[in-house]
Amino acid sequence: MDQGSTAAGEIAKPRRTAGRPRASESAHGSLATLLNLVRTGAATTRQELESQSELGRAVVADRLATLLRLGLIEEGELGPAIGGRAPRHVRFRPRMGMILVAVLDHSSLAVGVSDLSGGLLAEHHEAVELAGGPEPVVQRLATLFAWMLEEHGSAAGIWGVGLAVPGAVEKPDGQRLFAPALTAFQNWDGFPFVERLATAVGAPVWVRSGVQMMTMGELKSGSGIGLTDMIFVKLGRSIGAGVISEGALHRGAHGAAGMVGHTFIDGGTLEGAAGSDVLEREARLAAESGRSAYLAEVLERAGEVSVTDAGHGAQLGDAFCIDLLGRCGRAVGEVLAPLANLLNPSLIVLGGKVAETGDILLAAVREAVYRQAHPVVTRDLRILRSQMGGSAGLVGAAQVVAESLFDARFLQGWITLGSPREHPEFKEFLEQATVETSIRPARPRPPARMPG
Amino acid sequence: MAITGLGPHGERAVPADQVRVSDGDAEAARNRRFSVAVVLHTTASDWAKQELAGIVTTLGRYGAAVVEVVDCDFDIDRQVSELLRLASEPVEAVVSIPIGSSRAADAHRAIPAAGKKLLLLDNAPTGMLPGKDYVSVISTDNFGLGQIGAELLAPHVPQGGKIGVLAYGVDFFATHEREIAFRKWMAAHRPDLSLVRGKFADVSQAKAASAGLLQANPDLSGLFAVWDVPATGAVAAIRDAGKAIPVTTVDLGNDVAADLAGGGLIKGIAAQLPYDQGVAAGIATVLGLLERQPPPWIALPGFSVTASNVVEAYQVVWRAPAPTALLRARNPRTNMT
Lengths: 452, 337
Prior knowledge:
- The structure holds 2 protein chains of 2 kinds.
- Chain A is of the alpha/beta class.
- In chain A, 44% of the residues lie in helices and 17% in strands.
- Chain A has 3 domains: 23-94, Winged helix-like DNA-binding domain superfamily/Winged helix DNA-binding domain (Arc Repressor Mutant, subunit A, Orthogonal Bundle), CATH 1.10.10.10; 96-212 and 394-439, 2-Layer Sandwich (Nucleotidyltransferase, domain 5); 223-387, Nucleotidyltransferase, domain 5.
- A 6-stranded mixed sheet of chain A has the order 1-8-7-4-5-6, with helices on both faces. A 5-stranded mixed sheet of chain A has the order 11-10-9-14-15, sandwiched between helices.
- Chain A is globular and about 80 Å long.
- Mean pLDDT of chain A is 85; it is low at 1-23, 174-178 and 441-452.
- The longest helix of chain B is centred in the middle third of the chain and has 17 residues, at 173-189.
- The mean pLDDT of chain B is 92.
- In chain B, 41% of the residues lie in helices and 19% in strands.
- Chain B has 12 helices and 13 strands.
- The relative contact order of chain B is 0.17.
- At the A-B interface, strand 6, helix 4 and helix 10 of A face helix 6 of B.
């Protein structure tokens, strides 16, 4: 488990003592190695497992018997024989446990359920009113989770929860090792949101920023499949980026990497130039003054204008809408160009409701990046619009949990116990969280400041 | 009425009446003479007939021919095989209502894989994405329908009562959204009520599922069925049990409309406008075929029907005069003349 992860019930590095590993420790290690080889499909026969794990035949046979007994793997069909008995494949059982995921945003929440492969089985999105504070939200999540499990769950229960929140998620510090401070909703800091969720569900919770989860979703199921270096940019009310470098999500020293919306451009921030609130304000002014005939018609009909309306207007040829989204795209591209120079990604994906406005914004981003970044950087660089919409965060959250559950160090803590819910340090966390949520007032504290 | 639900991927709805074909695009579509196939769960229901009429009329207006209409008879396997067949037929777009979420996904993907446009009614199978796998989902606001069902039932249920939800036991986005919204509204506005759930996998089992729910919960004081056909099964089960429990549901079918008008157990209905939905689907199909990228989630609001407006609602939904039974109930004096 990476030290920087911010999970409720997330486990610190195992305390290794000097000298030779204990027998049980090495047994846990070989079990974890073999399970991950089978789970990822890297090796599925005994011969393949022996050669890839560099473990002896007897050890492999013994560990496979243990994994079979724990129900984590099962025997499958016979493979082709190569000069002897046909080898029997073993395969991972993804329905041994379920993963619940949730994405919180300023005006909506989404929930989903997946099996241990990380593929979504179902999802649901709804509008949410956050003015009532965190308590109704945590209750709503628990209700929706219960409903999802009734529809799609298995007897095995929940093995982990992935939670995406807007804004950066701090990595845990010494005092808050197991749960991050949720500064995303400023007046929520101090409310034990993650502890409440973990105790309600009885499973570890992994938390990341929304844009980091979306980045993982795009990498695993969207345009980024098979890539090792990409940038995902969420263009909404806030603007943030997720960076995949050499196959891994880059989170930074405090978990706040990717806050590109705060980059200064033309005397203000990028969010001040291209955030959806700003675009909507400009669109409304244009509608009221009559500068945009299309938006004036929308305002008269619907009483409000949105970024989506500006996108429709641009597609229908409205000059103001085309100019507005063109300016927005150029500002985004000018901020992304140095980022591309720095990181040399093979793909930049634009997501969020501003990105969904259409091709005019996309073309302006491309033009600015291709003009301002180094030719070597842009030689094979693709810049695309995400097709995943609000599902990206859910898919990414499921992937983050699946990877975290089977991270070698975390896995060693629970593998012989059959379920991550039995991980000793998670159980300890759960006990603390139960005490904490029962004695701690559910009253928000003033916000803490995020670095950056 | 406002659209309250979000799309299958969290999209904000674009109201159907805001999606239009420009004069230039209409001319371009007529010149291209597109061919379209329609795949429905059934062609027998009133809803399906109106939906199809809206699609066919609209496509005809823009020079597109509906060359085939497939009736899947609620059979997922049949839908899968028909979609795989259509993938190699000379049609340029397919309008389909997916039956079941996860199982239908691969068969639906065969349509865009064959270079054809796919338009979805009511729901998108899990994992399918707009722009990549399909053009748009065109749907009534199912979340709003569930809220209406709850609003209409609440006044008929006493304080501290117990409500049954007759749910569809198949992985289907539209009915899931109705149920989630119904539960959410009740939790927010009637926290005094408790909820129990009965499930049916086939509409023919709806009556038996309702009877089971009644038997297990003799103190049931209200019931919501996720659409009208199972609601008629629920009404029959309640009558068989010698009880009088208020029921609300979705879709203004003839049987539930007559029960509502006649002061029966049905107390309210959240209605859809299937013809208008068909029109929106036809427009989205034309736009998609012209590469105009219509919105991924095009929605129509549901509306609330009670005994007091059932005749007018019938005329709007079915585009026909209301049957005599409904008219008599509206004006009881006509019975005496």
